[in-house]
Each structure stands twice: as C-alpha cells, then as structure tokens.
Specification:
The protein contains 8 helices and 10 strands. By secondary structure, it is α/β, with parallel strands linked by helices. α2 runs parallel beside α5, α3 crosses α5 and α7 packs antiparallel against α8.
Length: about 240
C-alpha cells in the first residue's frame, strides 16, 4: 500500500491546493494528515472542511489543541524562554483562527487521536505522549529511538518541527513529513511524505507564496507580515 502523509498545513490554502494536485499525480492508496491543520494561514476553516470532506484520517497537533484545550498554550508558554512578543502574536493568530472555525469544527478537532496506526506506519504529530515537543532532524539515534520505538511500528512518522527527513534508527525508520504550509528547512516548497512498502520519500511541491501572502491580508489575518516573513524565509521568525 502506498500511503501519503500530509502534515502541518497550518491553514495555508494555496499550498494545500498545490499539494492536493500533486497527490493526484502521485496517486497513493491512502492519504492521512499529521495535525496542525488550521492556524497561521489564510483559510483555517476551509482547510478543515476540505479534509473532513475528503475523509482523511489523522492525528491531533499542538496547534489544534490550542483550540480544543486552550490552556495547553498557557502550560507550554510557562516553560518557554521565547519573548513575550511571540506569544502575543501566537494568541492573536489563534483567536482569529478560532473565530473562523466556530464550535462545530473545534469539536471535530477534539475527536482526533494522538496516534494513528497503519501498519507498518505509526503516525504522531510530535511524540506519542507530547504534542508540543519533538526531536529535531539532527537528534541522536538514541533520542529518536526513545521517542518513537514505543510506537512499535517499522516506520514512525511525525511532523511538528516543519523540517522533513528520513533516517534509519535501530531497525526502524523514523521520518518527518515536514510542513505542507509552513516549511522551516529553508526550502519554500510544500512537503509531504510518500510511503511505499519500506521506502519513504519526501516529496516537495512548488506553490504561489505571494498569492497566499495576499490572502492573509484579504482575510483579515491579525499578523500577516509575521506569517509572510516565515513563508518567504522558510524558517521561523519572531514577530
């Protein structure tokens, strides 16, 4: 079975449309999502509606939990050394997205599991027991093994860090799907994973970044310049 894993769309309508067109070409047997569906981009509600309509299975992400359990952001911020300006912008963006989503979509997000098992693939957003922290691509084999061996699958896939990779670790494959809507690896193209048997590949897709940036302002996004700076740099930026 060929499985496509699309993670961290973050409401980016333009990137999602380009990825969906590429999925039609790749023609996987199954498409699943790795969470963080709505926040940051121009069309949070539309992305959720489309994924629900397509029937994609998937997992809960931390940016989804911001809506289903708002206190989770307070808990993470309490242990963070990031500047107050970042959390102010995160809250403004989340509040705007929450208004777009409404209660029924947020209730649907709350039904998403933390782990999705599709043998040999096991999918989580960050880690099985933590939606907010995950190893970077440069993590040691030991760190990756501690984080994902407990899933018990031959292929462990996660998102969250927005930097795709595929590594062999202690008899298993650990892979990151990157981000369809907000890459952080210096490559502005959207990314997703394609799994075929024991072969895992990162697939990159060009999309019109300027169109998405224009959409941010058109939809009344509270921090369009901040999001635009990250889309252009394909890297995290402070607001």
């Amino acid at each position: 079975m060929r499985i496509a894993i699309v993670s961290d769309i973050h409401g980016n309508r333009t990137a999602f449309d380009a990825v969906f067109a590429d999925l039609r070409l790749a023609a996987p047997d199954l498409i699943v999502h790795g969470g963080d569906l709505a926040d940051s981009g121009s069309d949070p509600a539309g992305i959720i509606d489309e994924i629900r309509g397509l029937g994609w299975q998937g997992v809960l992400g931390n940016a989804d939990e911001i809506h289903t359990r708002p206190e989770s952001l307070d808990e993470f911020e309490a242990g963070s050394k990031a500047p107050v300006s970042l959390w102010r912008a995160v809250r403004e963006t989340a509040e705007w997205a929450r208004m777009q989503l409404g209660g029924e979509r947020i209730a649907w997000l709350a039904t998403l599991p933390r782990v999705l098992n599709l043998p040999p693939v096991a999918l989580v957003h960050a880690q099985p027991d933590d939606l907010w922290r995950a190893p970077d691509p440069e993590a040691s084999e030991g760190e990756l093994q501690r984080a994902y061996a407990k899933l018990g699958g031959g292929i462990a896939v996660y998102g969250h860090v927005h930097r795709p990779f595929v590594r062999s670790v202690a008899g298993m494959i650990v892979a990151n799907a990157g981000s369809a809507g907000l890459p952080y690896d210096g490559d502005r193209r959207a990314s997703y994973l394609l799994v075929e048997g024991e072969t895992v590949r990162v697939r990159r897709v060009e999309y019109d970044i300027d169109r998405e940036i224009a959409g941010l302002s058109a939809q009344g996004h509270p921090n369009p310049e901040w999001i635009a700076s990250m889309l252009r740099a394909a890297a995290p930026r402070l607001p």
